[in-house]
Design brief:
CopG family transcriptional regulator; coiled coil; Arc_rbn_hlx_hlx
Length: 179
């Protein structure tokens, strides 16, 4: 006697099994067995593991960006505090009330601007990082960039790139121009 297995599946899934089993030479048992074989196969494990690895890679990149942004933010704040404490002279007692009032006014202005920037989706750290990040023109002359593009596109150095564009990633792949 063959081993039996009684399982309960959803109505929707049952309908799909019934539909496939209507084909000639296909039984419900063969459909379920093929599905279970696929589930237990190494290929299924590899697909599942591949999806998990891709998600982990994406999370790692996001974490790295967050860590970088936090480092920039922390260093910026530390530098500002150090500069502020070393450069700002102490105020005489007579001027402290006026300074507090001005400070309160400035702080309210600051929080209003901050709320506006955040509501508008602006990000000062991203803006600053984009301003200070290196561009390909910082390292190469326009002629060298054209030569790198030509090599990447499989053209001679004198033909030039077909569309005149090459991504930073492509340039960073380290393909040298042999002349």
């Amino acid at each position: 006697m063959k081993p039996r297995l009684n399982v309960h599946i959803s109505h929707k899934l049952s309908e799909k099994v019934e539909l496939i089993a209507k084909r000639p030479g296909v039984t419900k048992a063969s459909v379920v067995e093929a599905a279970l074989m696929g589930f237990f196969s190494k290929e299924f494990d590899d697909q599942r593991d591949g999806a998990l690895i891709r998600r982990l890679d994406r999370l790692t990149r996001q974490y790295d960006r967050l860590e970088r942004n936090l480092t920039v933010t922390t260093e910026t704040l530390a530098l500002f505090v150090r500069f502020f404490l070393t450069v700002t002279p102490p105020l005489p007692n007579a001027d402290q009330d006026a300074a507090r009032a001005l400070g309160k006014e400035r702080f309210e202005y600051f929080t209003t601007r901050l709320a506006r920037r955040l509501a508008g989706g602006k990000n000062m750290i991203k803006d600053v990082l984009e301003e200070i990040s290196a561009k390909e023109g910082d390292f190469f002359t326009p002629e060298e960039i054209d030569a790198l593009r030509a090599v990447r596109e499989g053209l001679s150095v004198h033909d030039g790139p077909p569309d005149g564009k090459m991504s930073d990633w492509e340039l960073s792949q380290g393909e040298a121009v042999d002349e």
